[in-house]
C-alpha cells in the first residue's frame, strides 16, 4: 500500500480532516457537559448566574485593602478584596523569593566551603518538606508570640504580638495623591535620563539622571505643604488601635511561600551560573575584575538567558500555591470565593471566577516574563 | 517517510468520542431506571450501604471513639436511617465533610444524606437544591472565652478578635450581632477545625464562636483545662440543626423525616431499645402501629413494616441517643426535650 508522504497534498488534507474531527469532538463534549449541567441545575432548583455578585455579602473579612462592611458591601467587592489579598501575597512573595533565591544560588557556588554547604542544606531541607506543613509550622511559630499586653517592642511604636505586627503609619491626606503622582513622574523621567546618560564617561552625570526621583515629590511637598499626622498604635481593650498591621496569617503565608520558593530559585540560579563556561570567570580575572564584579558584569548577564524561562514557572507556582492560605486562615481569593459560594450555593460560578482570576494572573506573568526574556536574548547575541 | 499520524489513531479517536459520550449520558441513564420511585432509596438498597456525610470531628455530633467507631447524635441519626432502610444500623459508611464542601457532596450525589450539624435557613433551602428533613438538635450561636480575659458577657466583646469557621451560619450571625450592637470585631476564618482550635488556645483570638453545643463539646475535650474557659450566657441566634437531602426525591425525604419522628414517638410512649421486646403483645394501638404490628405504614413509606422497630431496637429513642451523646458533655436537655416536658420535640401521629 502507498503511504501518503509527509508533504503530499493528500496527507495534508487527511491531517486537516483529523484535526477538524478532534476539534468537533471537543466542542461536542463541551456542549454536552454544559447542557447536562444546566439541565441538572434547573432540575435541582439550584440558583444560577452571576447576579449574586451585586447582592450584599454577609461574610466577615479580617483584612482588606478596601473598606468593607459585612451585609452592606456586595459579593463583587468581596471578590475584589480576595483578588487584592492574593496579589498582596504574590507580588512581594515573587520579589523576595527572587532576591533570597539569587543570594542562596550565588552562595552555593561560593569558594567559601561553609557558605556553600549552608546554602546546600537550606535548599535540601526547604525543598523536601511539603509546603502545607511549612505554612502550618510558620503559623504555629507566629502564634507563640506573647499576647498584646505582653507584646515585644523592638522599636518605639512597633508592637509584636500574637495579633501580628503593629506599627505607626502616616494618616492619608488628600495632598498625598499629588506627591505620589510626582514620585511616579520622577521615576519615569529618571528612566529616560538614565538611558540617555548610560554610556556617559562621567560618573556624576550618570548619577544625576536619578535626581528627579527624590526631587519631584520633595518639590510638590514644599509647595502643597500637607499636614502630616502619624497614627501611633495604642493598646485599647482587646487589641491595638491605630497604625497599621501585618497579621500573623499574612506573615506566615508570605514567609512560608518565600522560603519554599527561594529554594527552587536558588537551584535555577546556580544552574544558570555554572552553565557559563569557566573561561568567562577567568577572562574577568585576567582583566583585573574582582570575583563580585565578574559575576555582575560578565557571568550573570549570560546566565540570565537560562534563568528566566524556569523562573516564570516558579512565579506561577508561587501565585498558585498562595491558595493554600485557606489552611491558615488568610483570606485570599480562594478562601473568600469558597465562603461566598458556600453561602450562595453557586459553586460553578464561584469556581469559574477563581479559575478566570488565576488564569489572568498567570498569563500576565508569562507575558511579562516572555517579553523580558525576548529582550535579554536579543541583547546578548 | 512514515506518516506522523499513525493509521490506528482514527479508530482511537472514534473510540474516545464514543466512550466520552457514554460517560456524559450516564447520569441520565441512572435517573431513568425503574424502582421504588426514589432513586436514592434504590441506590442505597442496591449498594446495601448508606453513605452518610458527617463532620467527623465534632464531639457530641460525630467523632470517632478510641475504637474508631463514629459516635454522636449525627452519627446515630445515620445509623437510625440505615436500620430503617436496610434493617441493620451498621450498614453505614461515614464520609467526613467540611463546612465548605458539605453541600456540594450532597448535590453531586456523593452522599445519600447530610447529617452534619447544619442550620436550617430559608436561604439554604431556597437556593441549594437541598431540603431539611427535620430538626435533630435545637442550638444557638454562642461565644467561648478564656476566663482569664475577664469577659463575662458578649457585650464586652467590642474590638475583640473572633475565631470562626468560614461558610457557616455562625459567621453570618456574629456579623449581624456586632453590626446591630454597633460593636467592632476582627474575624479569623480558618477552615480546619483543629487549626481553629489551636488558634483560639494560643490566644490568636479572644473568643471562639460556633454553635453553643459544639463549644460545650470543645470545652469538654479540654479535660482538666475545661474550667479555664467560659461559655458566655448570650445565645445570639437560633440554630436549628438537621439532616439534609436532595430536593425532588420526596420518598427519601419522607423516610429521613419519619425515622426521626419514630424515635421521638418511642421516647414519648416509653419504648426503648432495652424494653422493646416486651411490647410484642401490647394492645396499645399507637405502639402497635409504631412497631409495625398493624397498619402497614412501613409499606406506604416504601420500607419493611418493622422499620421503626429496627430503629428503636438497634439505635433507640431520642432520650437514649441524648444520654449517650450529649449528656456526657454536660449539656442540659433544655429545648431538646419532649414537648410535654418543656422541650420542642413533637412528632406528628404515626397512623
Report on the architecture of this protein.
The complex is a heterodimer of chains A (381) and B (351). Chain A has 381 residues and is α+β, with helices and mostly antiparallel strands. Helix content of chain A is 66%, strand content 7%. Chain A has helices spanning 9-43, 75-108, 113-128, 131-143, 176-197, 203-208, 212-224, 248-275, 278-286, 291-321, 333-344, 347-380; strands spanning 152-155, 158-161, 164-167, 169-170, 230-231, 234-236, 239-241, 244-246. Chain A has a four-stranded antiparallel β-sheet. In chain A, strands 4-5 form a two-stranded antiparallel ribbon. With 351 residues, chain B is α/β, with parallel strands linked by helices. Helices cover 39% and strands 17% of the residues of chain B. Chain B contains 13 helices and twelve strands. Chain B has helices spanning 9-32, 39-47, 73-86, 102-107, 122-127, 169-180, 193-201, 212-221, 250-268, 285-290, 297-301, 307-314, 318-325; strands spanning 50-54, 63-64, 70-71, 92-96, 113-119, 130-132, 137-146, 160-164, 185-189, 207-211, 229-231, 238-246. In chain B, strands 1, 4, 5, 6, 7, 8, 9, 10, 11 and 12 form a ten-stranded mixed β-sheet that branches. A two-stranded antiparallel ribbon of chain B has the order 2-3. The longest helix of chain B is centred in the N-terminal third of the chain and has 24 residues, at 9-32. The radius of gyration of chain B is 24 Å and the shape is globular. Chain B starts with 8 loop residues before the first helix and ends in a 26-residue tail after the last helix. Mean pLDDT of chain B is 88; it is low at 1-6 and 26-34. Chains A and B meet through helix 1, helix 4 and helix 11 of A and helix 1, helix 4, helix 5, strand 8 and helix 6 of B.
Amino acid at each position: 500500500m502507498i503511504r501518503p508522504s509527509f508533504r503530499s497534498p493528500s496527507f495534508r488534507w487527511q491531517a486537516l480532516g483529523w484535526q477538524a474531527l478532534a476539534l468537533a469532538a471537543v466542542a461536542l463534549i463541551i456542549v454536552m457537559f454544559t447542557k447536562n449541567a444546566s439541565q441538572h441545575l434547573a432540575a435541582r432548583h439550584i440558583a444560577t448566574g452571576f447576579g449574586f455578585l451585586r447582592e450584599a455579602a454577609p461574610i466577615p473579612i479580617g483584612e482588606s485593602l478596601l473598606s468593607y462592611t459585612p451585609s452592606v458591601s456586595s459579593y463583587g467587592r468581596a471578590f475584589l478584596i480576595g483578588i487584592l489579598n492574593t496579589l498582596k501575597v504574590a507580588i512581594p512573595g515573587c520579589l523576595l523569593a527572587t532576591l533570597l533565591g539569587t543570594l542562596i544560588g550565588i552562595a552555593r557556588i561560593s569558594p567559601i566551603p561553609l557558605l556553600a554547604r549552608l546554602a546546600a542544606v537550606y535548599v535540601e531541607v526547604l525543598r523536601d518538606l511539603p509546603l502545607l506543613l511549612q505554612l502550618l509550622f510558620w503559623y504555629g511559630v507566629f502564634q507563640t508570640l506573647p499576647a498584646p499586653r505582653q507584646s515585644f517592642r523592638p522599636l518605639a511604636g512597633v508592637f509584636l504580638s500574637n495579633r501580628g505586627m503593629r506599627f505607626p503609619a502616616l494618616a492619608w491626606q488628600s495632598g498625598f495623591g499629588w506627591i505620589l503622582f510626582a514620585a511616579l513622574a520622577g521615576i519615569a523621567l529618571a528612566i529616560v535620563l538614565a538611558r540617555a546618560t548610560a554610556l556617559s564617561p562621567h560618573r556624576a552625570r550618570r548619577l544625576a539622571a536619578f535626581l528627579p526621583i527624590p526631587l519631584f515629590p520633595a518639590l510638590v511637598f514644599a509647595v502643597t505643604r500637607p499636614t502630616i499626622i502619624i497614627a501611633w498604635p495604642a493598646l485599647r481593650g482587646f487589641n491595638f488601635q491605630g497604625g497599621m498591621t501585618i497579621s500573623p496569617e499574612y506573615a506566615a503565608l508570605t514567609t512560608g511561600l518565600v522560603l519554599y520558593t527561594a529554594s527552587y530559585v536558588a537551584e535555577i540560579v546556580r544552574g544558570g551560573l555554572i552553565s557559563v563556561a569557566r573561561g568567562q570567570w577567568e577572562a574577568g580575572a585576567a582583566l583585573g575584575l574582582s570575583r563580585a564584579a565578574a559575576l555582575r558584569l560578565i557571568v550573570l548577564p549570560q546566565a540570565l538567558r537560562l534563568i528566566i524561562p524556569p523562573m516564570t514557572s516558579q512565579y506561577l507556582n508561587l501565585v498558585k500555591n498562595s491558595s493554600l492560605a485557606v489552611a491558615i486562615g488568610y483570606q485570599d481569593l480562594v478562601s473568600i470565593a469558597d465562603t461566598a459560594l458556600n453561602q450562595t450555593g453557586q459553586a460553578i460560578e464561584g469556581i469559574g471566577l477563581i479559575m478566570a482570576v488565576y488564569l489572568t494572573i498567570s498569563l500576565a506573568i508569562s507575558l511579562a516574563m516572555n517579553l523580558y526574556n525576548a529582550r535579554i536574548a536579543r541583547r546578548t547575541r | 517517510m512514515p506518516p506522523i499520524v499513525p493509521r490506528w489513531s482514527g479508530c482511537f479517536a472514534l473510540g474516545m468520542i464514543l466512550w466520552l459520550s457514554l460517560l456524559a449520558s450516564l447520569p441520565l441513564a441512572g435517573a431513568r431506571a425503574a424502582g421504588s420511585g426514589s432513586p436514592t432509596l434504590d441506590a442505597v438498597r442496591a449498594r446495601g450501604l448508606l453513605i452518610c456525610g458527617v463532620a467527623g470531628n465534632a464531639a457530641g455530633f460525630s467523632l470517632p471513639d478510641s475504637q474508631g467507631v463514629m459516635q454522636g447524635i449525627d452519627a446515630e441519626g445515620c445509623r437510625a436511617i440505615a436500620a430503617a432502610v436496610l434493617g441493620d444500623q451498621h450498614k453505614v459508611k461515614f464520609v467526613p465533610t467540611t463546612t465548605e464542601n458539605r453541600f456540594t457532596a450532597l448535590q453531586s450525589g456523593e452522599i445519600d444524606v447530610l447529617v452534619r450539624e447544619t442550620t436550617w435557613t430559608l436561604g439554604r433551602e431556597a437556593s441549594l437544591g437541598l431540603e431539611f428533613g427535620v430538626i435533630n438538635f435545637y442550638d444557638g450561636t454562642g461565644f467561648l472565652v478564656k476566663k482569664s480575659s475577664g469577659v463575662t458577657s458578649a457585650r464586652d466583646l467590642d474590638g475583640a478578635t473572633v475565631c470562626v469557621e468560614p461558610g457557616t451560619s455562625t459567621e453570618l450571625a456574629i456579623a449581624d450581632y456586632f453590626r446591630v450592637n454597633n460593636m467592632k470585631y476582627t474575624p479569623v476564618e480558618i477552615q480546619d477545625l483543629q487549626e481553629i482550635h489551636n488558634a483560639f488556645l494560643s490566644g490568636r483570638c479572644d473568643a471562639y464562636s460556633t454553635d453553643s453545643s459544639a463549644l460545650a463539646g470543645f470545652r469538654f475535650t479540654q479535660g482538666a483545662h475545661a474550667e479555664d474557659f467560659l461559655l458566655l450566657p448570650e445565645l445570639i441566634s437560633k440554630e436549628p440543626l438537621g439532616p439534609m437531602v436532595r430536593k425532588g426525591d420526596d420518598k427519601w425525604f419522607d423516610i429521613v423525616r419519619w425515622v426521626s419522628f419514630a424515635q421521638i414517638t418511642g421516647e414519648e410512649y416509653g419504648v426503648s431499645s432495652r424494653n422493646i421486646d416486651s411490647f410484642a403483645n401490647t394492645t396499645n394501638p399507637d405502639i402497635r402501629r409504631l412497631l409495625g404490628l398493624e397498619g402497614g405504614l412501613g409499606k406506604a413509606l416504601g420500607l419493611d413494616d418493622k422499620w421503626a422497630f429496627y430503629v428503636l431496637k438497634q439505635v433507640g429513642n431520642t432520650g437514649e441517643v441524648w444520654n449517650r451523646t450529649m449528656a456526657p458533655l454536660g449539656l442540659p436537655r433544655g429545648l431538646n426535650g419532649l414537648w410535654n416536658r418543656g422541650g420542642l420535640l413533637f412528632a406528628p401521629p404515626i397512623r
